[in-house]
Design a protein that fits this description.
- The chain folds into 2 domains: 62 residues, Arc Repressor Mutant, subunit A; 175 residues, 2-Layer Sandwich (Beta-Lactamase), CATH 3.30.450.40.
- 47% of the residues lie in helices and 18% in strands.
- The strands form 2 sheets. The chain has a 5-stranded antiparallel β-sheet with strand order 4-3-7-6-5, with helices on both faces.
- The longest helix has 30 residues.
- The protein starts with a helix and ends in a 6-residue tail after the last helix.
């Protein structure tokens, strides 16, 4: 914890001082830390992209990593503000939990959920990452990949069978992803957790990039495969409305 506080003390110097470029000796003076300690921590921050040093023994500035954080916060806030009314409307129609996620590269980021009105409902676990190949939200992301990108993903991923319904055959998975890309909607039929069914449709921005998705999930006592198919038009329509509000233009 002490080390973490020292790192934060170093970073906060760039916020509290007028100068955007600061030398190592000045960082040590302003933080009250030993120069060797500051040097060690600054080296790690430079490697991780949080700080930048223009030349050897030169001054330090905040790195591009902070721009990534800023962009992620703005994107999340923008999607959330625009999507929430549509998410609420979808929830009223389907009566099940409606969820919103955004995509940041390979990461799937939970944004918010409008709970089901039923006492028995599925609660997403934002802090728990799930394999892409056996979840509706993950399949949408995989369906965007090229053949070579898919090969790389599957070569680096342990394809485990979490439930009897989990598809682990690569040939079948790839064929399934072609259908997901064609239909613009993906399903999770108890493939990640027993007793849980889900459906998701992608959200695109003005550049037609897949930046997030709308999903509906619930227990199998209410969500059968037929019920998921019945909900598909509503979920796709909700995702399209959000996309249009974000600048996407349907062809």
């Amino acid at each position: 914890m002490k080390s973490l506080n020292k790192v934060l003390d170093i970073l906060e110097v760039f916020i509290t001082t007028e100068s955007s470029e600061i030398r190592l000796t000045e960082l040590a003076k302003l933080t009250g830390l030993h120069k060797a300690t500051v040097n060690r921590m600054v080296s790690v921050l430079v490697k991780r992209g949080y700080l930048t040093q223009q030349e050897v023994r030169g001054k330090y500035t905040l790195g591009a990593k902070f721009l990534n954080f800023s962009a992620a916060i703005k994107k999340k806030s923008k999607i959330s503000n625009i999507a929430r009314p549509h998410l609420i409307a979808l929830n009223k129609i389907v009566k099940e939990s409606a969820v919103l996620h955004s995509y940041d590269g390979e990461r799937i980021i939970f944004i918010e959920e409008v709970h089901s009105e039923y006492p028995l409902r599925i609660i997403p676990e934002p802090e728990k990452s799930a394999p892409h190949y056996c979840t509706a939200i993950g399949k949408l992301l995989l369906a965007e990949k090229t053949e070579s990108e898919l090969e790389k993903y599957f070569s680096e991923t342990d394809i485990e069978k979490y439930t009897p319904n989990t598809v682990t055959d690569l040939k079948k998975l790839k064929a399934h992803l072609i259908i997901v890309a064609r239909d613009g909607v993906a399903y999770d039929e108890e493939e990640w957790h027993p007793g849980v069914m889900a459906i998701a449709a992608g959200i695109r921005d003005e550049e037609e990039r897949l930046i997030g998705c709308v999903g509906v999930l619930g227990p199998t006592v209410r969500l059968s495969k037929k019920r998921l198919l019945d909900l598909s038009p509503h979920v796709k329509q909700c995702a399209m409305k959000i996309s249009l509000d974000l600048g996407y233009r349907d062809q």
